[in-house]
Amino acid sequence: MSVRTFEGDFQARDARFAIVAARFNGLVVESLLAGAVDTLRRHGVEEADIHVYKVPGAFELPLVVRRLAAGGRYDAVIALGAVIRGATPHFDHVAGECAKGLSRAMLDTGVPVAFGVLTTDTIEQALERAGTKAGNKGADAALTALEMVSLLRRMEG
Fold first, then answer.
1. Would the pTM of this model clear 0.85, i.e. be above it?
2. 43: how many CB neighbours lie within 10 A of its CB?
3. Where are the domains of the chain?
């Protein structure tokens, strides 16, 4: 007897994606956004099926992500932002609440939410993860969204 394994691939034909991107730390987030859009397009998603929404910062991501996920218009939502540690506890509050809110949006709606929010100690670390030394985490989040849409479709039928 063999064990059956189910997993998604990176093909999500006729899928629609929303990307919610924070404007705060825009230099970093714009690189994440470019990576996410490029990855979706390289995997066959039509430009008309990619919609980008901008919010002020990472703290505002969960509200817009939840509304989009609950609206039934998108197969997955990709959240992009960058929270960079400073000299105050502000980082911990913003990063933690953002992560909790995005997780809740996904669980409450059943729509995949790909987490492309960087939490780094320095701007240099953020830039490394936005397309230089450590790859592009926006592209990684887009791959996650593609795979989750594919897997959920396989599970449904």
1. yes
2. 17
3. 50-57+76-134
Alpha-helix runs per DSSP H in the chain: 26-42, 61-70, 90-109, 123-129, 137-156
Q: For this structure, is 90 an active site residue?
A: yes
Let me know if 14 is exposed, middle or buried by CB neighbors in 10 A (0-12, 13-18, 19+). Answer: exposed
Instruction: Give 15-33 pLDDT, tens digit per residue.
Output: 999 999 999 999 999 999 9
Dig out the tokens for 111 from the structure: 């729509």
Q: Which of 10, 15, 30, 17 is nearest to 114 (CA)?
A: 17
H or E element, residue 77 = strand 76-84
- CATH code given to domain 50-57+76-134: 3.40.50.960
- The catalytic residue among 43, 51, 90, 93 is 90
| C-alpha span between 35 and 30 (Å, rounded) | 9
DSSP element (H, E) containing 18:
strand 17-22
Task: Say how far residue 133 (Cα) sits from the centre of its chain.
Answer: 20
Q: Which of 108, 126, 124, 143 is nearest to 22 (CA)?
A: 126
